[in-house]
Specification:
By secondary structure, the chain is an alpha+beta fold. It folds into 2 domains: 55-261, 3-Layer(aba) Sandwich (Glutaredoxin), CATH 3.40.30; 263-299. It contains 6 helices and 15 strands. The strands form 6 sheets. It has a 5-stranded mixed beta sheet, sandwiched between helices. Helix 1 packs antiparallel against helix 6 (264-295). The protein starts with 5 loop residues before the first helix and ends with a helix.
Length: 299
């Protein structure tokens, strides 16, 4: 039986890699299998090329400021209209989950808070005992009444008392200052009366130090628990998974704004390359070992 030399096997792997690349490119193209089109159709008016962010998102995102201490003297109004300072919610030994949202957000803010509430229900801890939650609207025009309604909605979903979950509204532009301090960049579109922002929550230490960022709308119980435990010890952790999900993306064909994810395909591509590289390395080592055995008369 004829054996393929190592070079032949590697060439076969490269051919497989090329075929996979072609298949991925074909799957991502605007043409379906069996399409007779030979040239791309012109994009719809206002449509963006693949991989290009809408203008509204060019300055939107999260710039991690791990280790930065926020100004705990910033003042806000709570859900009852009372003036409070951030330091009122920072206590010895209790880390803080910070949400920057806006209460009338049509989609992403609700998904972030829903995901956060779900993971909080899975924790054996209670807001107000082991940790605090501070939810702040970035919209300076939203009222305490709206914050109170939002709080009642999420406490009902949470299903048990949470004396340490606070819903705040802006005072004197401090929501914008707080967002800048934690690196949460957003923008406002007056024509649509909506805010463009990313999906992320920030974990702060009891001293107000930025300890970790968690991204997306679904959070792993282990990640949240470890993040709170590390923050309670005044330690910081860099995010491993950073896939930004934006609230604001204009779809010219649907004439509406939809969720927009970025960096996900880049992550998938890196994983694919690493797996293929690992496969080729193992194949090469196996061929090398087989050659040594043949020379030694073992096979």
């Amino acid at each position: 039986m004829t054996r393929n030399p190592p070079t032949s096997r590697i060439l076969q792997a490269l051919a497989i890699l090329a075929a996979l690349g072609t298949a991925c490119a074909w799957a991502g193209s605007p043409f379906g299998v069996g399409s007779s089109n030979s040239t791309p159709e012109p994009a719809a008016p206002g449509a963006l090329p693949d991989g290009v962010l809408p203008a509204q998102l060019q300055t939107v995102g999260v710039e991690e400021h791990l280790g930065r201490v926020i100004d705990l003297n910033l003042e806000f109004s709570d859900e009852n209209g009372a003036r409070v300072r951030l330091k009122d919610f920072f206590h010895q030994g209790r880390p803080v989950i910070l949400d920057l949202v806006y209460y009338r957000c049509p989609m992403l803010c609700n998904l972030v808070l829903n995901g956060q509430t779900e993971v909080m229900r899975e924790l054996p801890w209670t807001p107000g005992n082991e940790y605090e939650v501070v939810t702040v609207t970035i919209d300076p025009h939203e009222s305490a009444e709206l914050a109170r309604e939002k709080k009642a909605q999420y406490l009902k979903t949470f299903g048990r008392p949470a004396p340490g979950w606070h819903f705040l509204t802006d005072y004197a532009g401090n929501a914008k200052r707080l967002a800048a301090q934690v690196g949460f960049r957003y923008t406002y579109d007056a024509r649509q009366d909506q805010y463009a922002h990313a999906a992320a929550i920030t974990i702060l230490s009891p001293q107000g130090k930025v300890a970790r960022y968690l991204y997306g709308i679904h959070f792993k119980t282990r990640d949240v628990r470890f993040s709170l435990a590390e923050a309670s010890e005044n330690r910081t952790t860099m995010a491993v998974e950073k896939v930004l999900l934006f609230c604001y993306h204009y779809d010219p064909q649907a004439n509406s704004y939809t969720l927009f994810a970025t960096n996900l395909m880049k992550f998938g591509g890196v994983v694919t390359i690493l797996l293929l590289g690992f496969y080729m390395l193992r194949m090469h080592r196996a061929e090398h070992l087989a050659a040594v055995r043949r020379r030694e008369g073992l096979v």
